[in-house]
């Protein structure tokens, strides 16, 4: 009997109040843009893709180890931007500032290099995707939200008909040392 691989990623979920505010702002986007559903707003730390189900224990152990190396830390949202660029926008996102995110992402990608996406980590929270190429968002947005990140999740993404469905498989509490204060 074979088991289907699991499509997995690690992410920091956005708090409910932040998701609600982002969703209100996205209501002003042109219909060419498809907003992310508020319950799925997150900051991806490491996308693993298809992981054999019998290797899930390895993924969980890597999450535990990464969580033990970083303590709770402040995170701040900033300006919006587009991937790949403003001239050819495909994804609208909000920039994120929090150096400990880089540490978490690096630790997870190093431990799970067999599956982790090799692209450089760019901390961001995806807001919307372009339905058809070409039209930039009609206005820039700035979000001045901040919160303390105390955990991250391992999420299974199921691609079915329409949008992906996300299921949290495990939450990892950050138990490491507190980050040094910013100068």
UniProtKB/TrEMBL annotation:
<dbReference type="InterPro" id="IPR009097">
    <property type="entry name" value="Cyclic_Pdiesterase"/>
</dbReference>
<dbReference type="GO" id="GO:0008664">
    <property type="term" value="F:RNA 2',3'-cyclic 3'-phosphodiesterase activity"/>
</dbReference>
<dbReference type="GO" id="GO:0004113">
    <property type="term" value="F:2',3'-cyclic-nucleotide 3'-phosphodiesterase activity"/>
</dbReference>
<protein>
    <recommendedName>
        <fullName>RNA 2',3'-cyclic phosphodiesterase</fullName>
        <ecNumber>3.1.4.58</ecNumber>
    </recommendedName>
</protein>
<comment type="similarity">
    <text>Belongs to the 2H phosphoesterase superfamily. ThpR family.</text>
</comment>
<comment type="function">
    <text>Hydrolyzes RNA 2',3'-cyclic phosphodiester to an RNA 2'-phosphomonoester.</text>
</comment>
<dbReference type="GO" id="GO:0016874">
    <property type="term" value="F:ligase activity"/>
</dbReference>
<dbReference type="InterPro" id="IPR014051">
    <property type="entry name" value="Phosphoesterase_HXTX"/>
</dbReference>
<feature type="active site" description="Proton acceptor">
    <location>
        <position position="124"/>
    </location>
</feature>
<feature type="active site" description="Proton donor">
    <location>
        <position position="42"/>
    </location>
</feature>
<dbReference type="InterPro" id="IPR004175">
    <property type="entry name" value="RNA_CPDase"/>
</dbReference>
<feature type="short sequence motif" description="HXTX 1">
    <location>
        <begin position="42"/>
        <end position="45"/>
    </location>
</feature>
<keyword id="KW-0378">Hydrolase</keyword>
<dbReference type="Pfam" id="PF02834">
    <property type="entry name" value="LigT_PEase"/>
</dbReference>
<keyword id="KW-0436">Ligase</keyword>
<feature type="short sequence motif" description="HXTX 2">
    <location>
        <begin position="124"/>
        <end position="127"/>
    </location>
</feature>
<feature type="domain" description="Phosphoesterase HXTX">
    <location>
        <begin position="13"/>
        <end position="93"/>
    </location>
</feature>
């Amino acid at each position: 009997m074979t088991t289907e691989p699991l499509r997995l990623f690690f992410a920091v979920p956005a708090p409910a109040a932040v998701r609600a505010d982002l969703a209100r702002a996205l209501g002003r986007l042109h219909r060419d843009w498809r907003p992310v559903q508020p319950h799925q707003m997150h900051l991806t730390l490491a996308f693993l893709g298809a992981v054999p189900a019998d290797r899930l224990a390895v993924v969980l152990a890597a999450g535990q180890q990464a969580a033990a190396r970083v303590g709770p830390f402040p995170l701040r949202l900033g300006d919006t931007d587009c991937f790949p660029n403003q001239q050819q926008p495909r994804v609208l996102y909000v920039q994120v500032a929090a150096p400990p995110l880089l540490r978490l992402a690096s630790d997870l990608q190093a431990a799970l290099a067999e599956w982790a996406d090799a692209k450089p980590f760019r901390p961001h929270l995806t807001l919307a995707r372009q339905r058809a190429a070409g039209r930039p968002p009609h206005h820039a947005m700035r979000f001045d939200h901040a919160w303390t990140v105390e955990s991250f999740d391992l999420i299974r993404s199921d691609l079915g008909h329409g949008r992906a469905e996300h299921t949290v498989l495990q939450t990892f509490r950050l138990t490491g040392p507190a980050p040094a204060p910013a100068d």
